[in-house]
């Protein structure tokens, strides 16, 4: 009888653990995202899969960010062109190239 209880407990733990992991990842609060048009769209779309460290080292202009976002669409993201334009504009402003690095 103890074998059955142990097996049931293990199965319940295995069933609950994967379901709770994405919820925990989504509850993490992003760091370093200044207020601005497009911030909420970005946080609502990208943080379903990515953490806040994704943007810290990438410095691109709007066109570069659009390329990144369209690549995510190619991988299954379901975003409209307006959402991509809004997110790329926000990222270019918040995480664009420094003025000295712009060409």
Largest sheet at a glance?
A: none
Distance between the termini: 73 Å
Radius of gyration: 19 Å
Range of helix content: 55-70%
- What general outline do the C-alpha atoms trace? globular
Count of DSSP strands: 0
Give the overall average pLDDT. 75
| SSE string, helices as H and strands as E | HHHH
Count of discrete alpha- or pi-helical segments spanning 4 or more residues: 4
Q: What portion of residues belong to β-strands?
A: under 5%
- Which class do the helix and strand fractions yield? mainly alpha
Outline the low-pLDDT stretches: 6-27
Topology:
Blueprint: H1 2-27, H2 39-46, H3 62-74, H4 81-94
Helix pairs in contact: 3-4
What would you say this structure looks like, in words?
It contains four helices and no strands. Helix 3 packs across helix 4. With 103 residues, it is an all-alpha fold.
């Amino acid at each position: 009888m103890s074998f059955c209880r142990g097996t049931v407990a293990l199965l319940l733990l295995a069933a609950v653990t994967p379901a709770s992991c994405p919820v925990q990842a989504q509850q993490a609060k992003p760091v370093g995202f200044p207020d601005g048009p497009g911030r909420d769209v970005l946080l609502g779309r990208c943080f379903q899969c990515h953490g806040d460290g994704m943007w810290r080292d990438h410095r691109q202009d709007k066109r570069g960010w659009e390329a990144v976002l369209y690549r995510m669409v190619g991988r299954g993201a379901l975003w409209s062109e307006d959402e991509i334009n809004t997110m790329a504009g926000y990222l270019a402003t918040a995480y664009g190239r420094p003025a000295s690095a712009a060409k």
